[in-house]
Design brief:
This protein is of the alpha/beta class. The two termini are 32 Å apart.
């Protein structure tokens, strides 16, 4: 071990567990940044409501998955510590304290937004504010559309407490009969198919909460009874699924597991703070929820539902619509995607450039008589997916279609089972990959008969084949007919369909086989360059950094003098800026109009950036243990000179330069919003107003229009 490596080892050992930020607390910090966007006065008002709704939905899923997992560890007596030195029980304690604060801030935010909405004549009414005419309309609405699907339930020895589904929302009631004085405990579960916000007719935008509507006409459900006490509550259940690795039929196994998930144990019970103690205890004991898992809120339960007040008839309170551009280079070839790809590799930047180019790639393949085969991964897609429709069309036309459908895509399992069956009925070969590995790679491979032989075309993406999320997620799509990358795509599909482990991939790196090793190799090369006095730098962008081994390699690189700039939207367990450990590492998070989702990594390779010698990759993988060790992922080298410049000098530079949506991670794990003034640079704004990356003709790109963007270190 040389002197520099020894110094690094001493620094890491000296810092111990303190050199890592807790994963769960880092995620909560990310959701705080999302919530802070709801308070951002630079955003239109209804978009601020959307951020609040996203924050609420995110927190619900956090409990369903992460908190549920920690509780399972505690119940099984697991005391192993996380990299930052906390046991599962200690993590739960820290989460509870942080979540209580976060939920209180969410409620305060909602109350603030409600006041602002009233100023814009958008009102969520209290019951006493409903006019007689509106009450008459609500009476009819209740009688015709709500009453028939409600099931009021008396709870007594003959009527046990009912099962309430995950995210189930209910009224809890204590009633007394007017004539005989008989008391009754009862529930009114509100089916999820009923809108939470009932919009009233008229030019004014006025809503009534469904729970208030039910209380207004409770006598229809319990004739002769009057309300003594009432409250509202919501349950969140454990939504993790355990799959038997010996399962003989994976689809049937998942269908059974989905049914079990709906009946998972209650992880969180949220009640309104005005619920009387007797009602609170009645509900808590009936659901078997410990007191520590009961959260009383002074405000609106189920903040994810606030998105229902976002109305289209107030465009002045929404972001100005962004019309994604279709890549000009493909237009120059008359819309012939294959001809455009043959001319030069194409990089497409979503959502600034339309996802339609990905759809048309598959649709053209389905309709082209010269195409003989299509191979496609499907992790998440939309309800009426044009990608799936094109694959069905291709299979019905007699083409060889292979669809790698990932059943383990959390919360999309049922949809993916439906797609799989539709594809099978059309004649496609559907496979489900590995029981113990998720297939998270984004690959679409087309084989076409040309000039007496076969030529392959491949699409590698950083995001899902989902045309809806592609409108709000920033992602990259690479189209190429490079023989090596097409060969490697075929090898990956053979691995997924036949367990034929690739022996020698020509260019591609895949997890769990080589991706981690390749990242480490390039990090070690940067360390060697720094020690040799050569320029050494790593610039990367992804969603999460959790993997302990990768973090330690980054610390080692920092100590060797490698300059490291990371753009990490969500979780980051690395502590930047610690002398003797990470003083050369800077971390920023961009949270704004679009959800940053693309994964890019650049290694300087001994020259100052930007450089023709830099090693540039796009990837489907975040730097987390699950991505590097438990999933099929891709690391795709970018070799075309124009595409390299587009990624290095446009996408990455704009992200590093962004001021308006940037937060900087501090050594203590907190984030500081970047201060900015008039004329501050916005990465999102820049790409919405500038030409597409793909450009025109062989020159491609729009580099000449970006003289102000320089690849310089991010601000500390």
């Amino acid at each position: 071990m040389d002197e520099a490596t020894t110094a690094v080892a001493i620094a890491i050992e000296r810092n111990g567990a303190d050199r890592y930020i807790n994963r769960e607390l880092s995620w909560l910090a990310f959701n705080q940044r999302v919530l802070d966007e709801a308070l951002n006065e630079d955003h239109p008002l209804l978009e601020r409501v959307r951020f609040l709704s996203i924050s609420g939905s995110n927190l619900d899923e956090f409990f369903m998955v992460r908190v549920a997992g920690l509780k399972a560890q505690v119940s099984h007596g697991v005391s192993a510590t996380s990299p930052d030195g906390l046991t599962p029980a200690q993590q739960l304690s820290a989460i509870t304290a942080r979540v209580s604060q976060l939920m209180a801030e969410q409620q305060a935010c909602w109350q603030h937004l409600v006041t602002l909405l009233r100023g814009e004549d958008i009102t969520v009414l209290r019951r006493h504010e409903v006019t007689p005419a509106e009450r008459s309309w609500l009476d009819q609405k209740f009688q015709e559309d709500i009453y028939p699907i409600l099931s009021p339930i008396a709870v007594d020895p003959a009527h046990p407490f009912p099962f309430l589904p995950n995210l189930g929302f209910s009224l809890s009631l204590n009633l007394v009969h007017d004539e005989d004085g008989v008391e009754l405990d009862a529930l009114v579960p509100i089916p999820s198919l009923i809108n939470r916000m009932i919009r009233l007719p008229g030019e004014q935008i006025r809503f009534v909460l469904v729970e208030d509507l039910v209380l207004m006409f409770l006598d229809r459900l319990f004739p002769g009874f009057r309300v003594v006490d009432s409250g509202v509550f919501q349950v969140i259940r454990d939504s993790e699924m355990e799959i038997d690795e010996e399962a003989e039929d994976l689809v049937k196994t998942f269908e059974t597991a989905l049914k079990r998930r709906r009946r998972g144990s209650v992880i969180r019970l949220t009640i309104n703070s005005s619920m009387p103690d007797s009602q609170r205890e009645f509900v808590r004991k009936a659901l078997g929820v410990p007191s520590d898992d009961v959260f009383a809120l002074d405000g609106l339960i189920g903040l994810a539902d606030t998105k229902e007040v976002i109305v289209d008839d107030r465009p002045d309170l929404l972001f100005t619509p962004h019309n994604a551009r279709f890549p000009e280079r493909i237009r120059d070839f008359g819309g012939d995607t294959f001809a455009a790809i043959r001319a030069k590799d194409i990089i497409v930047h979503h959502p600034y450039e339309s996802f339609d180019v990905v759809v048309s790639f598959v649709q053209q393949a389905a309709q082209d008589p010269d195409v003989v085969a299509i191979k496609q991964t499907l992790y998440r897609t939309s309800k009426n997916s044009p990608i799936v429709a094109a694959l069905i069309e291709a299979a019905e036309a007699g083409k060889s279609v292979v669809a790698m459908v990932e059943l383990k895509a959390r919360f999309d399992e049922e949809a993916n089972i439906r797609w799989a069956r539709d594809l099978e009925r059309a004649g496609a070969q559907v496979v489900y990959g590995f029981i113990n590995l998720k297939t998270h790679a984004k690959i679409s491979l087309v084989v076409r008969r040309e000039m007496g032989g076969l030529r392959s075309y491949v699409h590698y993406g950083t995001g899902n084949y989902h045309p809806i999320t592609a409108r709000i997620y920033t992602d990259l799509s690479l189209f190429t007919c490079d023989p090596a990358l097409c060969h490697d795509a075929t090898a990956v599909f053979n691995f997924m369909t036949g367990y034929a482990k690739p022996v020698a991939l020509r260019k591609l790196g895949i997890a769990p086989l080589q991706l981690r090793k390749r990242l480490v190799h390039h990090m070690e090369q940067e360390i060697a360059n720094a020690q040799a006095g050569l320029p050494a730098r790593i610039v990367a962008k992804f969603n999460s950094l959790v993997d302990k081994k990768i973090i330690d390699h980054l610390y080692e690189a920092s100590c060797a003098g490698v300059q490291i700039d990371l753009v990490i939207r969500g979780i980051c367990c690395l502590r930047p800026g610690i002398p003797g450990l990470s003083e050369n590492i800077r971390v920023k998070s961009i949270v704004g109009r679009f959800l940053e989702h693309s994964r890019i990594v650049i290694f300087a390779n001994g020259e100052e950036l930007p450089s023709d010698q830099a090693a540039i990759f796009i990837s489907s993988a975040d730097w987390m243990p699950r991505n590097l060790d438990q999933r099929i992922e891709t690391l795709v080298p970018i070799e075309n000179p124009t595409v390299r410049r587009q990624i290095m000098e446009q996408v990455m530079v704009a992200n590093l330069m962004d001021e308006t949506s940037s937060w900087h991670l501090q050594s203590d794990g907190t984030y500081r919003r970047q201060e900015f003034g008039p004329g501050a640079f916005s990465a999102h704004g820049y790409f919405m107003t500038h030409p597409s990356l793909s450009g025109r003709g062989s020159a491609g790109g729009s580099m000449s229009e970006l003289p102000e963007l320089k690849l310089a270190p991010t601000a500390k």
